[in-house]
């Protein structure tokens, strides 16, 4: 088994066509066909269904191609780390950001890295905490922002930010940033919330159970954009962290008030894999990410957030 075979596997999986894959890899079709045959012989398993529809991965192929992608990705990152361009620090760093933090942090982070570490390339993924924890443990990303409630011996966690949750409604709902409300006062409101086990939904469920309240959840969606759109269209209310609604409040698109219940706050942590080496490129990206978060809080762009890192 060699890298050419893995590249052939991944390229055919993506194109589902032997001829197109050969063109992309700039080799003749018999050569790529031979690489796949040798790979299947080495594994002792057929990886593709071959038919009129092209080359389609079977179950064994779908399993192995994910390992192949990770191997090729790790080699690409290692080459970039060992041979940085123009004598500068180099490397590829994969970052995972929570959907509620991505809009505020991604542009600032990219801008700072281009200025201070132009040799570092970054790949930004967004996802919910549970997904990103799996990506970290599987080696698909190097750094992530998670909720503190999601712990694992496979991860090193550093608490960064404490942030309260806000009750969000459409324009005209009379919600104000300087008038906090309690969860008991929203039991009669139709709610649009993420489905369990989303971190915010868990906090809301715990707070309502603690106070023996029955909330009226009319819609569940794990899309923050859908939450906001349904609220904007007057179909209900939602609960979000302040960072997710800064621009909406400033533009008058939505109205919101902080929830005063102590249980309705979240802690955001920086997470890195325990068993993997933290390269110099990763350390630099981590430092820039932390600075972006601190700057956002100090400038008032991340309202109701408190920096708690040492």
Q: Can you tell me about this structure?
A:
The chain has 310 residues and is α/β, with parallel strands linked by helices. The chain folds into three domains: 3-75, Winged helix-like DNA-binding domain superfamily/Winged helix DNA-binding domain (Arc Repressor Mutant, subunit A), CATH 1.10.10.10; 85-160 and 268-307, Periplasmic binding protein-like II (D-Maltodextrin-Binding Protein, domain 2, 3-Layer(aba) Sandwich); 165-266, D-Maltodextrin-Binding Protein, domain 2, CATH 3.40.190. Helices cover 43% and strands 23% of the residues. The protein has helices spanning 3-15, 18-25, 29-43, 59-82, 99-116, 129-138, 199-210, 224-232, 246-250, 280-298, and strands at residues 48-51, 54-57, 91-97, 120-126, 143-147, 155-169, 190-193, 216-220, 238-241, 255-258, 265-273, 305-307. The strands form three sheets. Strands 3, 4, 5, 6, 9, 10, 11 and 12 form an eight-stranded mixed sheet that branches. Strands 1-2 form a two-stranded antiparallel sheet. It has a two-stranded parallel sheet with strand order 7-8. It is elongated and about 70 Å long. The termini are far apart. Belongs to the LysR transcriptional regulatory family. Keywords: Activator, DNA-binding, Transcription, Transcription regulation.
- In total, the number of domains comes to 3
- Count of extended strands: 12
Give the proportion of residues in helices: 40-55%
- What is the subunit organization of this protein? single chain
- Provide the CATH superfamily of the largest domain: Periplasmic binding protein-like II
Helix run count: 10
Q: End-to-end span in angstroms?
A: 47 Å
Largest beta-sheet details: 8 strands, mixed
The general outline is: elongated
Please provide the ordered H/E string of secondary-structure elements: HHHEEHEHEHEEEHEHEHEEHE
CATH topology of the largest domain: D-Maltodextrin-Binding Protein, domain 2
What is the overall pLDDT average?
88
Indicate the low-confidence ranges by residue numbers. Answer: none
CATH architecture of the largest domain: 3-Layer(aba) Sandwich
Structural class: alpha/beta
Strand content: 15-25%
CATH top level of the largest domain is: Alpha Beta
Rounded to the nearest angstrom, the radius of gyration is 24 Å
């Amino acid at each position: 088994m060699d890298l050419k075979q893995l590249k052939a596997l991944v390229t055919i999986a993506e194109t589902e066509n032997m001829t197109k894959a050969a063109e992309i890899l700039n080799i003749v079709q018999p050569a790529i066909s031979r690489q796949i045959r040798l790979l299947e012989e080495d594994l002792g398993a057929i990886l593709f269904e071959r038919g009129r529809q092209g080359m389609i991965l079977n179950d064994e192929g779908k399993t192995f191609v994910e390992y192949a992608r990770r191997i090729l990705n790790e080699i690409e990152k290692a080459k970039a780390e060992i041979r940085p361009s123009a004598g500068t620090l180099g490397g590829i760093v994969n970052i995972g950001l929570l959907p509620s933090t991505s809009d505020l942090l991604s542009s600032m982070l990219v801008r700072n890295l281009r200025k201070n570490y132009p040799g570092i390339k970054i790949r930004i993924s967004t996802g919910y905490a549970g997904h990103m924890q799996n990506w970290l443990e599987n080696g698909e990303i190097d750094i992530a922002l998670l909720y503190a409630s999601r712990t694992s011996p496979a991860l090193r966690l550093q608490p960064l930010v404490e942030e309260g949750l806000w009750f969000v409604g459409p324009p005209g709902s009379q919600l104000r940033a300087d008038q906090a409300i309690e969860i008991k006062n929203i039991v009669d409101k139709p709610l649009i919330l993420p489905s369990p086990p989303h971190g915010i939904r868990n906090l809301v469920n715990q707070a309502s159970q603690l106070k023996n309240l029955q909330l009226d959840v009319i819609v569940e969606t794990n899309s923050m954009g859908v939450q906001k759109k349904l609220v904007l269209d007057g179909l209900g209310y939602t609960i979000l962290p302040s960072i997710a609604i800064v621009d909406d409040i400033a533009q008058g698109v939505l109205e919101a008030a902080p929830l005063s219940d102590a249980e309705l706050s979240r802690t955001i942590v920086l997470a890195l894999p325990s068993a993997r080496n933290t390269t110099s490129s990763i350390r630099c990206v981590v430092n820039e990410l932390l600075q972006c978060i601190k700057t956002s809080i100090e400038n008032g762009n991340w309202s109701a957030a408190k920096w708690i890192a040492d």
